Amino acid sequence: KANGRGWFRLFESGMDDELQGRRKLEHDLRHALQHDELILHFQPLVDSNFRILAFEALVRWMHPTLGLVMPAQFIPLAEECGLIIPLGEWVMQAACTAAAGWSQPCRIAVNLSPAQILRTDLPTTIANILIKTGLPPDRLELEITEGVLMDNTDAAIKTLTELRELGTRLVLDDFGTGYSSLSYLQRFAFDKLKVDRSFVQRLASDSGSRAIIMAIIALSRSLDLEVTAEGVETEEQFRLLGATGCQEFQGYLIGRPMPHDEVENFLRNSSPLSPGQPRPRLLDL
Ligand code: C2E
Ligand code: MG
Ligand code: MG
Ligand code: MG
């Protein structure tokens, strides 16, 4: 948040300044791509025994004057000005390189923007990165939000089919926040849903959210889909989710997004665990 404040100052005083701020930001982002200012943080996804199943790659920008900038503050702009294509390719390359070097074969989850899905060369780009890094395709999970499926159904179907043929896994991110989700589940062969954080947050206080999560889990069972709960912050949420049959968890309770040099340490301390073994101490927050 401290870093964000300087950022918003750019936009504070009126439209002209705002436009200028955006131009500067766009210029800076272009520069960032060429000068190694982007980094990835990795957040663990675990099973109910806290065994690590995957890490999600989350991009950050180490801005020379603003400090660490979060994706909400530059991904939308990157999408508007087309920079999301080279940025997304950088993320894919960096994430697969990292995962290929880990001491354990956990998966790597990478977020894709709609503009990336709509590029017909995306499957080739990803195939080349997999070959170059040596990462087996089934260790790559591609996280997609449902917006792109609604607006550009035919193009999206074609790309997703090709990605599936490559052997990568397809994940529907932020599930439950968009529209007509159920029909998409049938139409596109997803491997997994990620229940949006907003439902998890209201889980303990709101029986409606709990009912929705239970319905999502029942649905995914019958469609043979895996389910991850995102944004798990408390022991109580973890327990309630486990009681509804959720088997995969991600959130600050399990681990915050961490720089790459902490991943190996996290892997060493967290596994291997056999099922039924007591859970390890939660990492200090
Ligand atoms: P997402 O894919 O839904 O990622 C989860 C976000 O929730 C991350 O925010 C993560 O840090 C945050 N989070 C995880 N656990 C908790 C928790 O327990 N509590 C709370 N309050 N938050 C939690 P982050 O890193 O700021 O990323 C935000 C969004 O930016 C991501 O949402 C994703 O849509 C997008 N994004 C991040 N990296 C990339 C990228 O490389 N490419 C694209 N296209 N989008 C990205
Ligand atoms: Mg995601
Ligand atoms: Mg998500
Ligand atoms: Mg989310």
Descriptive report:
- The protein is of the alpha/beta class and 285 residues long.
- The protein contains 13 helices and ten strands.
- The longest helix is centred in the N-terminal third of the chain and has 21 residues, at 14-34.
- Mean pLDDT is 88; it is low at 273-285.
- Bound molecules: ligand C2E and magnesium ion (3 copies).
- Residues 22-271 form the EAL domain.
- It comes from Lichenicoccus roseus.
- This is EAL domain-containing protein.
Summarize the structure.
The chain is α/β, with parallel strands linked by helices. 48% of the residues lie in helices and 19% in strands. The chain has 13 helices and 10 strands.
Task: Report Rg.
Answer: 19 Å
Main structural class: alpha/beta
Question: How much of the sequence is in beta strands?
Answer: 15-25%
In total, the number of strands is 10
Tertiary shape: globular
Give the averaged pLDDT, no decimals.
88
How many individual helices? Answer: 13
Name the helix and strand elements from N-terminus to C-terminus, one letter apiece.
Answer: HHEEEHHEHHEHHEHEHHEHEEH
Lateral strand order in the biggest sheet: 1-2-4-5-6-7-8-9
Low-confidence stretches: 273-285
Major sheet characteristics: 8 strands, mixed, barrel
Ions, cofactors, ligands: which are bound? ligand C2E, magnesium ion
For the terminal residues, how far apart are their CA atoms?
17 Å
Q: Which bin fits the share of residues in helices? A: 40-55%
Protein name: EAL domain-containing protein
Organism: Lichenicoccus roseus
Domain EAL: 22-271
